[in-house]
Every structure is written in C-alpha cells, then in structure tokens.
C-alpha cells in the first residue's frame, strides 16, 4: 500500500471535515483544495483573518468553494477555535496552518479545553519506500530525548496508528547505532527492553518488535544476513523507531530530500490525528498527510 492506493481506499469511505488552524498558508490551502477535489474531504474549516485567508487563496489562484472561514485575530485564538471545533464534534481532523507548532500544541494540550487522548503525543511520519509500500518513522519532530517510559509510549502510539491505517500486526525495528546490546550504550539497552515488551504482549495492540537494529539491517534483509543477524523484522519493518529527535529528524529529511521518498507527517495522541506539515514540504506531501489522517479515521 502506497499513498496512491491509500487515497483510492478513501474514495468510497466517509468524507471528513478538516479544520486548519490559522490558515494563511497558500500551500496548506492548496492541499486542502486538492483533498476536496479528490473527494477525500467534504468540508474545510479555516480559522484566521478573513481578508488574509482570501489573499493567500488569491495568491495561489484557489477557489474557496467548500471552505468555511471563521474569524480569529491572533494565531493563539485561531488555534483555540480550531481545537474547539474538534472538541465539540463539528470537525473530524485538525491541521496546522501558518503558525508555530508550539501554539497549536498548547491549544491541543490545554487541560480544560484541549483534545489530548493519550498520555504522550508523538510525531509519526509515513514513508513510501522504493518497493511502493508505506512504512512509519517515529519520532522525528516532537519528543527530544525521551526516557524509557516515554519511548514505550511513543512506540505504543506508532503501533496503534499502524493498525488504524491497515498495517496490522506491524513489524517494528527499534533503531540504534549498533545491533548488539551494550550496557555502555543506553539506547541498545532500551531497544532490547522494548523488544522484550513486544514479545510479552505489553503494547496495546499486537506487534513484532526487534532491536537494537542499526538502520542498514533494519531496512535490508541482505545487510542483516551478511552480518549474521537473524530477525523477523529485518528488511520488512513497518515501523522504524528512533530513540531521540535529532536522529529522527536527520533520517526523515535525508529520506525525503536525498532519498526522494514521498513522505507525510501527523501528530498522534489527541482525539484525532493532527496534520503537521512544514512550509518547505511539497504540495504532494501536504496532500499525502491529509490522506494519511483520513485513513486513520476510516474505520471509526
């Protein structure tokens, strides 16, 4: 299953409403227009200054039919209003517009008016591998240096998300710089413990977890064989888990810019997936992220 087949799967499913917080970004509006035109969405709600939203749409020559604009005077107000639409059941999905990630996350995590669902929120990227199938990478954008408990929650989020998009009983590679357990390298110890948790069924859904695995033998079965590594995950990973943000961010960008892989990112752990894109992301990447979030809700 690649992004094209994922979108085809959505054609006959329920059409969702998406709310963009502070939607002054022409690229985001263009992706939403494409999602409407391709039948992925039924409605797009946008918060922000009405005149500036129209100006952003005009700059990209976009028709705003199917869009509903709700005024907000500041990014903070735009984020709060967007989250309110989700909390009150008036919209299904949330998307970051032209505002900082910290602002939208503050609204999401507000104890009284937020939409937190899990103990910890984490970033999940979907990558279309050269073989044409999707795999997930986590966490490349949110949790900086998670401790072991946070790592287990990040992995549990990714396993839940994998099931929600049809990757049942996912195979997980917990990455480290080496594939052997070394007491002097905490990441290898944590990876081994996460693998043991998987074998004992300690995650919320079933998964096959192996680690520590270096990226080469997680990605390539041939590399694993050459190193004498026996693994049910090597070369077949559905989830690549990094153990700190810098490694994840570098891998994410290398696979996207140098590797040329199609990619999409969401935040998981709220009551709905949060579509999180960068202004540098391509229009295709933004559209893929919307489709990915829709797919995660397709069975709900």
Question: Could you characterize what this model shows?
Answer:
The chain is an alpha/beta fold. It is 41% helix and 19% strand. The chain has helices at residues 3-10, 26-37, 50-59, 75-87, 101-109, 148-164, 186-199, 215-219, 221-226, 245-258, 283-296; strands at residues 16-21, 41-48, 67-71, 93-96, 122-128, 134-138, 171-175, 208-213, 239-241, 262-268, 274-275. An eleven-stranded mixed beta sheet has the order 3-2-1-4-11-10-5-6-9-7-8, sandwiched between helices. Helix 7 links the parallel strand 7 and strand 8. Helix 1 (3-10) packs across helix 11, helix 2 crosses helix 11 and helix 4 packs across helix 5. The protein is globular. The two termini are 20 Å apart. The mean pLDDT is 95.
Catalogue the unreliable spans: none
- Radius of gyration over all CA atoms, rounded: 19 Å
Structural class: alpha/beta
Specify the overall morphology.
globular
Strand count:
11
H/E element sequence: HEHEHEHEHEEHEHEHHEHEEH
Percent range for β-strand residues: 15-25%
* Subunit arrangement of the protein: single chain
Instruction: Let me know the average pLDDT.
Output: 95
Terminal CA distance reads 20 Å
- Tally of individual helices: 11
Helix content, binned percent: 40-55%
Strand order of the largest sheet: 3-2-1-4-11-10-5-6-9-7-8
- Biggest sheet details: 11 strands, mixed
